[in-house]
Amino acid sequence: MDKQNDQSRMDKIVSLAKRRGFIFQSSEIYGGLNGFWDYGPLGVALKRNVKDAWWRDMVSGHDELATLAGAPSPYEMTGLDCTIIMHPQVWKCSGHFDLFHDWMIDCRESKRRYRYDHLHGRWAAHRGKKVFVTTDQSGDEAVPDTVAKAQKFFGLRAKQVDEIEWGGGLESLQAVVAAGVASLADALGPDAAAPGSLTEPREFNLMFETRIGALAGDDDDRAFLRPETAQGIFVNFKNVLDTSRVSVPFGIAQVGKSFRNEITPRNFTFRSREFEQMEIEFFCKPADSAEWYRYWRDRRWKWYLDLGLTAGKLQLREHASDELSHYSVGTADIEYAFPFLAPGEFGELEGIAHRGDFDLRSHMEGKLVRKNGELVVETGPDGKPRHRGSGKDLSYFDDVSRERYVPHVIEPSAGADRGTLAFLCDAYHEDEVPDADGKPRSRTVMKFHPRLAPVKAAILPLVKKDGMPEVAIDLYRALKPHMACQYDEKGAVGRRYARQDEAGTPWCLTIDGQTLADKTVTLRDRDSLVQSRVPVAEVVDLLRDKLA
Ligand code: GAP
After folding, report:
1. pTM for this structure?
2. Is the peptide bond before 454 cis (omega within 30 degrees of 0)?
3. How confident is the model over 423-481, as pLDDT tens digits?
4. Sign of torsion over alpha carbons 496, 502, 505, 506
């Protein structure tokens, strides 16, 4: 599919998400708030199903006695629910206070703000005038955007566009400025009419800041909304160890909100300022950590496939060594070809990182830096730790090997909103179905995996008479305690099927004249459109089995 088709597909998905109550702009009646999204009735069920599937597959349903395929040994899994606001020292020791920033650049003319690393540009010249035209567009839209901007800047008509001389392809603005090939004074900002309006880049910490207490004012009251759920797990490592019977290797899982003051939120919910994460910190013996890293990378990859994401749209990308965080010995991203990206581009759904002992040591000793290949406590000009750790012993005594060590950590860190968006995009299909007269009718159908579908079954009396609603209501009441289902008697049955197809309901149960005669209903399968007759008495067990 080409870029234009993909963009129009994305537009249709966004429009369906709004129209059918999957996702709304936050505070929409006041014009919305950039980077914040609300989930409507179908969306909240979809996202909850994504989180529930993750929790069940990773935590509550985990078989602690078995050695799962690819795992070096059996392991335990447990969970936590930590606060969003934590002691400010947590973020100082984790490195977020000093390092969790992006470079931003402002435009004095348009008053717009951009992420420096998102700006690209190229030299354009016309009749002795030369300018470095920049764009904040990505993929296939970037080059046409620079052409349109250069045309406007040089005051050319459409047929004169070929007169522009281009000095090569698109390059990162950051890179050309660093190399001295262009200066910010030469650059025409993405929304500016004249060059030289871009300010020097500035660091911008992505953590949202707040104050604690009514008399908040001095620096001690400063606090942050967590930018990841992970740190709550590290600082509770000892609590979990002391209060439960877990032993290494084991994982602690958490699902919850995280906040990042993204400079340029974009692409629907993909880059939001408030979002949910599903994170596991898996603690293991240092010598076994590389094996556990590979296990979690493959396990998490399989999870997305098992829940129906198209294999050809998923990519597992191992980071090159120069891409790794200073503490990591391996990281892989699971990425999805979202329709808003250019062909060949992928967006991150989840990162699986080998974090070594960086986090537990940071919270014991203080903020760490790598020096001569070793992690050491960073010191200030006075020789004291720049950010002091808790001083608590977070090491582990291994009863089997009789050794004491600081466990190494493997972190599968997934975004619940990004996962939900990928499942939403992947589910979107357009096809043709025969209408009541057998003529082909185009339909939009959301082919969610049944575990993720917001509504599992719809119960539809063919007509609102002849005792059909009564049988349908009884069936609805029998099914409802077991799964999300809907009763719908409004409109022609074809219209009702179409409504359920758009909601992604895998099964429709129609009560018709034959039901009254032989106590069977029609079971319509959303994807194959096959209709079969099933005894009413067997419906609950049949659908429960299909969902298991
Ligand atoms: N504890 C590690 C960590 O937070 P990350 O790669 O920064 O790693 C993990 O985030 C996941 O959280 C990402 O793979 C993505 O799914 C999700 N995520 C991160 N920033 C996000 C944002 N601004 N909007 C939506 N999801 C985001």
Report:
1. 0.91
2. no
3. 999 999 999 988 778 888 899 999 999 999 999 999 999 999 999 999 999 999 999 99
4. positive
Estimate to the nearest angstrom the gap between the alpha carbon of 527 and the chain centroid. Answer: 26
Task: Give me ligand 1 centre to Cα 225, in Å.
Answer: 15
For 360-369, b/e burial (b = at least 16 CB within 10 A) is bbbbbbbbbb
Judge if the beta carbon of residue 418 lies within 6 A of ligand 1.
Answer: yes
Give the pairing of strands 507-511 and 485-487.
Answer: unpaired
- How many angstroms separate the CA atoms of 194 and 443, rounded? 48
Q: Say if CB 40 and CB 24 are below 8 A apart.
A: yes
**Residue ranges in 267-390 assigned as alpha helix (H):** 289-306, 358-365
Q: Is 335 in the pocket of ligand 1 (CB under 6 A)?
A: no
Distance of CA 93 to the CA centre of its chain: 26
CA gap 479, 509 in Å, rounded: 11
Burial pattern 273-308, b for ≥16 Cβ within 10 A else e, equals bbbbbbbbbbbbbeebbbbbbbbbbbbbbebbeebe
Nearest CA to ligand 1 atom 6: 351
